[in-house]
Design goal:
InterPro entries: Homeodomain-like_sf, RNaseH_sf, Tc1-like_DDE_dom, Transpos_IS630-like. The chain is α/β, with parallel strands linked by helices. It is built from 14 helices and five strands.
Amino acid sequence: MVNRRISPDIKECALRLWELEWDRSAICSTLLVSQSSLYRWAKIFDEFGAVTPPPPPIMGRPQTIELAALSAIKDIYTRHADTCLFELRWWLAIHHDIQISISALQQSLDRTGLTRKLLHKIAVEREVERRRDFLYTIQHKFSGTGREFVTIDESSKNEHDVAPRYGRAPIGMPADFEDVFVRGVCYTLVAAMGIDGYIAQRVIEGSLDSFGFFDFIVEEVPEMGVFPDDCSVLVMDNCRIHHMETLQETLNAQGIMLMYLPPYSPDLNPIEESFSTWKAHLRANVRSIRAADDPILILLESTGCITPAKARAWFHHAG
């Protein structure tokens, strides 16, 4: 019975039987415990009211970074998310007389919830007023369901885009992966997305020009409605190939409204997030994608990863 772990319910049972005036020898032989253990449990129960003592209080070194400094650090990262650890280390030494290593500083930030993340870059060229006006328009001048809107954009893909980015390997060992270093043939996906997912998509070899973009719009116009019906407002960014007088005239003739996003505002276009999901799907299925006999057909089929539930979430996230 050396180093044998005895569950609390057996300890409680033993003390209960002892309280009912069972013979100690009978209790120990029945539950396979020693009399010394029985006495020890009784002493613990008398002192703490339970058969197991409470855990000891956590002891350790006092925190190097006090609450006031932590609050200031959070404020720094709120205003300057790209602050490096060595910069923060110097700031703590100068302003708070705190000497701390980079590794300890990293652990302190992790404990407070300031984790390391991929930076989300925001263009300094953004026009705040135009973004505010755009959001106000789509939120207050339409039905509020988002069913009027169809967003359109294009995304390219080459061999680098479908290569896996993460793998697994033992600790201290690199995760090696053999892959092509040439970009290979470029394919472009141009798609139109409503609140229920893609309503039209096309894949071409090479890049998309203004004529190819116009042809795609014209051929898919019958899929759209007349304003203010569902799918009657076409939203796109300010890419050069999207600005054509002929395009505006064609859409107006069909009763379709055309809206351009504010400059440098891809976050307001729901279809941008769909392209990220599409490329993640390509990376997850890279072997079948590369082995396909018809690359255009397999790329078109891969857009099936864009589901109505995801599309609605992207529209909600875009405002």
